[in-house]
Amino acid sequence: MIKKIFIILGIICFASCGDKPDYRIDGKLENLQDQTIYVVFEKNDMTQIDTVLCETPGEFTLERKTGDFNTATLFFENKTSWITIYPEVGEKITITGDVAYPTILQVKGGKINNELSSVRKKMGDLLKEQVDVANQLKRNLGQANSFDDSELTSRLTNLNHQIREQAGSYIQSHPDQQASVVLIQNFFTDPDDTRKLDEYLALLDPSLKNFFLVKELEQFSERAKRTALGAEAPGFNVKNVYGETVSLDSFPDKYVLLTFTAPWCDMCHPETLFLDEIVQKYPREQLDMVLVSLDDDMKGVRDVLAKDSIAWNLVTDSAGQAAMLIDLYNVNALPRSYLIDEEGKIVLKTENGIEIKQALEKILE
């Protein structure tokens, strides 16, 4: 596992002294409600976090005298929105615009930032409408307006398609620009389908082969292919909460449903995913189940299981087991389920309990 070093620093806006800093970020943001901004600097296995407190609403200055970083991500409004910038040593960066639309904030300073801001400006109307439609859908949650939601969902899908088309057009026209690699990361990293990602990576100029993001995207593609439909499921050897060894070899000649969950995930409960119904419907000679939970309280988990009528085969995060399996199976959201056939091939991956039920009915009945 990658180890990250977190250093928390408090920096008051417009406070600077001493030698000229390696990095300086100035911001003038509209409609900023929370005047605390978190900035996460990253490079390889190093992460440093700065906290910026704005004395004047929406205005701040952040200076760093040391460091060599690839990216800096600014989190706004209690970390509910953010933008990633690409600092260059000695280059002053300015961020302006309406914080309600973080995808169209203008970032000036440094080649990548300047180029990306130019792209954002051209796509500004689409990006703004994308945020507006997505916010409207969130506001409609739980309300009886399914027809309106259907129209909004269709519009959002169309907007996403148009934005990706414009991003793809830029990449094809600028294969030698580092900004193109950023656009690939932003718009074409689908963990379930790497075809576009691989296509655009192949278009890039050889001069970019050592750019850090290219290497990261190549690794992302490799991980995604490990769990593509039809791929052989990655093998593992872990212990469940009862100390019993669990591996794919533990389930010969049967289907296995491998599901990743977490106690804080509302959609991860067995009844929500219909797992309780499934485990009682199909005999273990046909289907077995493994739950992987990001919960390191093994005793507490065992106490809960003792009250359950179903004998769940559960692996927790004791000794980092769940984290290791999440990395192995390239899980980027919870819940996530993988249905593995008798030959060890992945035949379904989904976060939807209804899809699991329908697939099992088709296969096992």
> Based on DSSP secondary structure assignment, what is the total number of beta strands?
16
Helices, by number, come to 10
Shape: globular
Poorly predicted segments: 1-18
3D architecture notes:
- With 365 residues, the protein is α/β, with parallel strands linked by helices.
- It has 10 helices and 16 strands.
- Helix content is 35%, strand content 24%.
- Residues 1-18 have low confidence and may be disordered.
- The strands form 4 sheets. It has a 5-stranded mixed beta sheet with strand order 1-4-3-6-7, with no helix packed on it.
- The chain is globular.
- The two termini are 41 Å apart.
List keywords for this structure.
alpha/beta; 10 helices; 35% helix; 16 strands; 365 residues; five-stranded mixed beta sheet
Summarize, please:
The protein is 35% helix and 24% strand. The chain is of the alpha/beta class.
